[in-house]
């Protein structure tokens, strides 16, 4: 006869009762997007012991690379273009990935009223466009101190708090307005946006890139490959699928508690580099001071989505850009689509959507499908296949902005003053702009020298 065991049951093993792995580093980086991954790679190349804590299963942040199962080809539909800067060419060169001129990708484009599906023929007045870009460039050149960081002139120029629509009227920049709409996607209602943010994001470098057709793209059409090589070089110093749950910043160190599905970490670092957006939701884990909470709590976000859609039924190798001929300056309203980009793969398109408020995924997808069907009708395309989403990504919050009153009251002086406090440094789109080339440049020349100096 068997005997019933009187031994107590063994506890179920969960991450909460796993003993924390203790790790020590010079620098801990929160977030492995463009700026965080770049910073970590460069720090390690300088002989600094660094760890990256990233909640996703990969590095790269806003990078999205689609892998076509039929052709085995790839297409970048997140981050796409780069400026021809030394930090860009050096970083790609270090990982042996080629860069080519953006025009080499080819393809045609059409402007379409996405609300009706009607093709709107446009005749480009090259002279007017050039005058518009150069005219805007002259205005940007007045404010070189905001080109890299938030060094706002005193007193705050009146133009900074004008709505962009009024700024355009005041300076006769109507021929530039639609260019701003197409190149500054993700800024919400751009005509209602404070001009400071357009001057800051559509900066002198972007004017130069557009005027000189100087943009570069990854020659492999696989930006994820770059970050995969960064990860391989960093090795075990990348903690993927890992979230910080608590951060205590002391006079001489930073203590980080983090966990993934199967492990816990107790990390001690000399310095902390935060590359995630500084919002209450994204920074719920650090020991924020009342001043930090008050500053970060003032941000408002805009919303941006990209996707890959199969069975579009639209002609290949053609990008469709939204235009609203009845609207002021022909700029479409948000929420809505900016473009439906062509890809190298038949029937596969890459739509881009924006909004000034958060929307359910179902609503964004429904508008994409409806727009594709309206465009089919406008082009007399008789296919009736139902579009299918292969990928859908939310890049939100995309731009973080504050009110005009906050701008006038010195908000950005207060924000910049946080750099280096409590052994904490910041990089990322909020501190510069959400564009990879600019983020790498900012991180390389504004953040890393100061961080390295403190480690000596």
TrEMBL record:
One of its GO terms (molecular function) is oxidoreductase activity. Residues 36-292 form the Amine oxidase domain. SUPFAM superfamilies: FAD/NAD(P)-binding domain. It comes from the Eukaryota. PANTHER family: FMN REDUCTASE LOT6, PUTATIVE (AFU_ORTHOLOGUE AFUA_7G06600)-RELATED, PROTOPORPHYRINOGEN OXIDASE. This is FAD/NAD(P)-binding domain superfamily.
């Amino acid at each position: 006869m068997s005997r019933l065991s009187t031994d107590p049951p063994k506890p179920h093993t969960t991450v909460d009762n796993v003993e924390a792995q203790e790790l020590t580093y010079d620098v801990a980086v929160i977030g492995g997007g463009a700026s965080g991954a770049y910073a970590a790679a460069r720090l390690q190349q300088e002989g600094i012991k660094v760890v990256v804590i990233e909640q996703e299963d990969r590095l790269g942040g806003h990078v999205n690379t689609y892998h076509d199962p039929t052709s085995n080809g790839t297409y970048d539909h997140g981050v796409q273009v780069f400026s021809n800067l030394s930090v860009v060419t050096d970083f790609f060169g270090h990982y042996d990935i080629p860069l080519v001129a953006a025009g080499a990708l080819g393809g045609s484009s059409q402007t379409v009223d996405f609300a009706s599906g009607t093709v709107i023929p446009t005749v480009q007045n090259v002279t007017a466009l050039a005058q518009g870009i150069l005219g805007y460039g002259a205005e940007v050149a007045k404010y070189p101190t905001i080109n890299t960081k938030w060094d706002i002139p005193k007193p705050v120029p009146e133009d900074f708090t004008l709505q962009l629509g009024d700024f355009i009227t005041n300076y006769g920049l109507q021929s530039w307005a639609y260019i701003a709409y197409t190149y500054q996607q993700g800024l919400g209602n751009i005509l209602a946006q404070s001009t400071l943010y357009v001057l800051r994001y559509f900066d002198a470098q972007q004017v130069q890139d557009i005027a000189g057709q100087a943009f570069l793209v990854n020659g492999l059409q696989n930006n994820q490959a770059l970050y995969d090589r960064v990860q391989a070089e960093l090795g075990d110093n990348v903690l993927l699928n890992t979230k910080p749950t608590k951060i205590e910043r002391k006079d001489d160190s930073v203590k980080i508690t983090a966990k993934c599905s199967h492990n816990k970490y107790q990390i001690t670092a000399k310095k902390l580099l935060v590359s995630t957006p500084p919002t209450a939701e994204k920074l719920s884990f650090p020991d924020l001071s009342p001043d930090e909470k008050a500053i970060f709590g003032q941000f408002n976000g805009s919303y941006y989505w990209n996707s890959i859609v199969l069975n579009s039924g639209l002609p290949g190798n053609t990008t469709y850009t939204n235009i609203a001929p009845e609207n002021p300056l022909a700029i479409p309203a948000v929420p809505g689509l900016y473009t439906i980009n062509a890809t190298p793969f038949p029937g596969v398109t890459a739509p881009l959507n924006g909004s000034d408020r958060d929307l359910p995924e179902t609503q964004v997808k429904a508008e994409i499908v409806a727009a594709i069907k309206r465009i089919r009708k406008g082009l007399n395309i008789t296919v009736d296949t139902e579009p299918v989403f292969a990928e859908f990504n939310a890049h939100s919050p995309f731009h973080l902005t504050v009110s005009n009153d906050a701008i006038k009251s010195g908000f950005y002086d207060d924000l910049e003053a946080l750099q280096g406090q409590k052994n904490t440094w910041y990089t990322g789109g909020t501190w510069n702009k959400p564009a990879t080339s600019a983020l790498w440049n900012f991180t390389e020349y504004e953040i890393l020298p100061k961080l390295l100096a403190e480690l000596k």
